[in-house]
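Each record in this resource describes a single protein on a pair of labelled lines. With that in mind, the following record should read easily:

===
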Amino acid sequence: MGQSESFTSEQKALLEPYVTNTDRSVFVLTNLPEVIKGALFSRYSRSTLGLRNLLLKEFILSEDSEFSSIQGNSGKTTSRESSELAIERARKFYDRILDGYGDDSIGELGGAHLALENISMLATKVLEDARIGGSPLEKSTRYVSFSEKYEGRYRYYRDPKLMDSGYAKHYTRACDHLFDSYVKLCDPIWAHVRKLLPREDGTSEAAYERSVKARGYDLIRGLLPAATQTNMGIFGNGRFFETLIRKLRLDPLQENRDLGQSSFDELSKVIPSFIRRADRNHPRFQDYEDYTNFQKGLLNDFHSEKFSIESVSPQDMEVRLVEFDTNAEDRLLAALLYPFSHASLQELLQKLAALPEDQKKQLIQEYSKLRLNRRDKPGRGLEMPFYTFDLVGDYGIYRDLQRHRMLTQERQLLSTSYGYEKPEEIEEAGLGSIFDDAMLQAAEVYENLQKDFSHEAQYVVPMGYRIRWFVKINLRSLSWLTELRSVPQGHTGYRRIAQQMYLRVKEVHPTLADLMKFVDLEDYPLGRLESEVRQEAKKQSL
C-alpha cells in the first residue's frame, strides 16, 4: 500500500508511542485513552489531514488539548491518580469535540471491557438482551460447578425486597433446597452417565471424564434457580453501554438498577464522555425515562382492559412456526442476483415470477452445494425470507439461544406455569424424586411470592421450568443458529429446539431448507466426547 503522508524524525518520535507505524497507510492506535481515540476519530471525519497528522497537530502539539498533561512523556500513565486525571482532562476536551462534530454514532468509536461478578442469572439475560455493539461472555453451567459456598452460604442473589418481607425464610429455604439437590445429584448422575456410556478403548480418560462431567452438569442444571450468581464480561462500545445503563436504571428489579449505577460509576472512569447521557440528571435520560414509562403504561393498560387474564397450563416443549414469507424463493433469488444486474429489485422479482419453478429450484440447489462446511456463510440474499416462531422451552434453553443477536425476540416473565423439563436420565438413575421434590417446592414458593412480588418472584424459579418467547429471524441468521446449535457437542435441549426450527421451515419451504445443509438431526448421548478427544490430542501434541 502507498504512503499517504511523511514525517520528520522529530515528528516520528512524538507519534511512535501512539501508532504502530509512521510510514504505512494502515496502522493501529496505541497507548491512548478511549475518549481521546473517540475525539480523534470524530475530528477525522471532517478533516483533510491523515489521522497521524491530525493526532500530531490538533492533539499532541495543541495547547488546548493538554495532551502532554494527559499522557505524560512516555505515552503511558503511571498510577491510578494520574490515569483518572488524564481521563478527566480528556473528557473535557472530548466533550467539546463531540458537541462540535459528533452525533450518536461517535459513541461507537471507543469502548471498554466491563466485568460483572456475582450477578444473578436473571440479570444476565437483561444485560445480554442489548443486541448491537456489545459482546457478552458468561460463566458456563456446563464446565463449572455451582455448588461452591461463600461464607457458608450458597451463591444466589437475595433481593432486598424479598429479604425484608415475610417470605424471606420461604425463599432461602427453597433456594437452599435446590442447591442441596444439585450437590446431591452430582456424583450419582456422573456414575449413571459412565454406566450408560462406558469409556471405549483408545479414548483418553481425561477427555472422557470431561465429557461425563459436562453431560452430568447439563442434566442437573435445571435445578439451579434464576437467582444463581454467576460472572460475566462484556466488551462494548460507548453507545452500547449508554443504552444498556439507561435500560438497567429503569428496570423493575433492584439488582438491575444497582448494576446500572455500578456500571455507570466504573465506566465513567474510562469512557465518561461516551456514557454521560446515561446520567440520571442528564436531560436525555429524563426524556428516555418519561418515554419508557408512558410506553409501558399504555400497553399494560390496553392489555388489562381488552384481554382477560390467560389461564396457563403446563405443556411440553414446543416450536411453532406462526408466520413465514410466502414469496420467499423469489425474494431470495432476486437479492442474490441483484449485484449482477442493472434492473430494479421489482423488475427482478417480476422476471423470476415468470420463470419455471424447476429452474429456480435448480439454482438454489446448486448454490447450496457451494457450501462445504457450516462456516461457509451464504450470501445476504438469504436475509430476505423471514420466519416467526413461538417457542416453549426450559429457561436453560432460552438462556443459550437468547445470546443470538441477529434477530428479534421477546420473552414473557419467568414462571412455573408451563411445568418443567426433567431429563429421562435422572429418572433412570433413580434420582427423580429428589429432583421433583426440589422443583415443586420452588414452584410453591413462587406461587406465593408472585402475588406480591411479580418480578422478584422470578428469582426462585429453577432453570428447568419452561418459558415462552418468540423469535423473528431471517433465513441467513436461522441457518447459522440451527447449524451451530445442532452440533453433536451441544446441549440436548437446545439441539431439539434447533432441529425443530429447521423441520418447521422444511415443511413450508423444502427447497430453502436445503440451504441449511449442516443441521444435524442425529442424537448423541455423549456428544461432547469427540470434541474433548480432539482437545486432549492437541494438548498431547504440544
The first strand starts at residue 111 and ends at 120. The CA atoms of residues 129 and 402 lie 7 Å apart. The longest helix spans residues 168-196. The chain has 22 helices and nine strands.
